[in-house]
Amino acid sequence: MVEPMPQERPNCAVAKKLYEAFLAGDLQSIYGLLDPEIEWEIVGPKEVPHFGLFRGLEEVKRFFSIIGRINRIESFEVLSYTETERGAYVECRERGHFDGHPKHFDMRSCQIMDIVNGRIVRFRIYQDTAQMVDAWRS
């Protein structure tokens, strides 16, 4: 007998839509999943231009403009999705380098989303910041 597929968890479904849009380069779909007052944070030292806290949709658009100019992603993989009461945790692996900087980074990250009524209200990434800074300085 075939077991029925478990029902999709709502917060993981929102997270999956975000990463599908990211992998497709579909910024408009990403923006459509975000609350207008979103807090988007890449935890790490300000030396790397896209690290820091971006508040509101216009600031998130600025974040994507920055990474579009400097990041050269060679591979990006979602390793797991975990449903939480407040949102979702997503573990990812990313490999790439910064434009004009020869040293590569290859790391895992934990990406945490708070989701309310199907909209992402807070997004935080924790990653190997030492590796990112080292690649930025190279």
UniProtKB/TrEMBL annotation:
Domain SnoaL-like: start-end pairs: 16-122
* Key words, A-Z: Isomerase
Question: What molecular function does GO assign, one term?
Answer: isomerase activity
Database matches in Pfam families:
SnoaL_2
Name listed for the protein in its UniProt record: Ketosteroid isomerase-related protein
